[in-house]
Input
Amino acid sequence: MNSKEIIDRCLSTLALVLLSPLFLIIAVAIKLDSPGPVFFRQKRIGRGGVPFRIHKFRTMANKIPKVNISATGDPRVTRVGRILRKTKLDELAQLIDVSRGCMALVGPRPEVPEYVAEWPEELRNLILSVRPGITDPASIVYRNEADELAQAPDPERYYIEVLIPKKTAMYADYVRNRSLLKDAKIILRTITTVVSK
Output
């Protein structure tokens, strides 16, 4: 276990303790708003190509079939889900995955297997050489990705053909130039971006 992983797991465990009252409020709100589980679990690809099941607070109606992307205005999103998505509070559940060692606080965002298969072959192994993260530079740049997808005639095709190439280039750049100091700056930028919106 390297220093980054030790720091990530310690900080995420501390954050889970400190944020437990907020997590309880979110859980109650989700259960009161619509039937179904508190958490949304989905298979994602982690470091070394090893799959894991990510945690997010559920933001969609539980019984409606899911697709892998969601644009602004998606009718599957619940009332509480809209608030969680706008504030990015749904992503906080991934602290569980950081504390388990499946994810990092900062790293390339984990994708479903179908989209990892769309990554440029020359970048795939590089990106998967590190643990995926809750945030990264691409997460900040594409914070309003759902709005962009909503404007596309075919959101999934747009995601695959336009966004994936841009995001994977940013993922690869992060991996090549990562450092603990840069990670700290990315976390601060993420917090500032979320709070300012």
Remarks:
- The radius of gyration is 16 Å.
- The first strand starts at residue 39 and ends at 45.
- The mean pLDDT is 94.
- Residues 71 and 148 are 8 Å apart (CA to CA).
